[in-house]
Design a protein that fits this description.
By secondary structure, the protein is mainly α. It has nine helices and no strands. Pfam families: PAP2.
């Protein structure tokens, strides 16, 4: 069996679950298409908790995503294929999606780079930020818009980028200086009585 056939077979195995368990499809569609809004809201909430750790975490998450996305664009130059629904027959396509290069999955890159950045810092919600990107990655296959290789590659790039940025950013004094400048300006506009440094 070639790798290409294995990729297709693995796609069929997950995508066909939507036909076998249609009552799960609304939840899967929410994960695949709308969980992005929850992630964006989480970034905003963490930023406006106005703690230094949370803000450094958000900065790391954003930089990790940018770095991972650049790597993803480079990877897409070496390999490309259309979405499964555009190529394969009888795909259980549950959401609308443009036809373009689906390798690697941008959604998966985003969720793994941001969520793993959160997972490395947060304590109380650690389990959430570890489980969420995996659920979203599987959902993108389930709804018919990505192959397993798309999400596996996206996950790899996201994790590597999150780990690299988590290691690098604390060493960059310029990031800390820019954050301090922002917070000084913010304090003049939105004074805060209590700025706890703990999560």
């Amino acid at each position: 069996m070639t790798f290409s056939q294995f990729n297709i077979d693995a796609f069929r195995l997950i995508n066909d679950l939507g036909k076998q368990y249609p009552y799960l499809n609304p939840a899967i569609v929410f994960l695949a298409d709308y969980m992005l809004y929850f992630l964006c809201l989480s970034i905003v909430v963490y930023w406006f908790t106005r703690t230094n750790q949370s803000r450094m975490m958000v900065i790391q998450a954003v930089l990790a995503f940018i770095f991972a996305e650049i790597l993803g664009r480079i990877a897409g130059q070496f390999h490309s294929h259309y979405q499964p629904f555009a190529v394969l027959p009888h795909v259980n396509k549950l959401i609308e999606h443009d036809i373009d290069n689906s390798f690697p999955s941008d959604h998966t890159i985003l969720f793994f780079s941001v969520c793993i950045s959160f997972w490395l810092v947060r304590k109380k919600e650690k389990w959430l930020w570890f489980a969420l990107p995996f659920c979203v990655a599987v959902s993108r296959i389930w709804v018919g818009v990505h192959y397993p290789i798309d999400v596996v590659t996206g996950a790899f790039l996201g994790v590597i980028s999150a780990l690299f940025v988590y290691w690098l950013v604390p060493k960059l004094s310029s990031i800390k200086q820019l954050l301090a400048l922002y917070e000084k300006l913010e304090q003049q506009v939105l004074p805060s009585k209590d700025k706890s440094k703990n999560l």
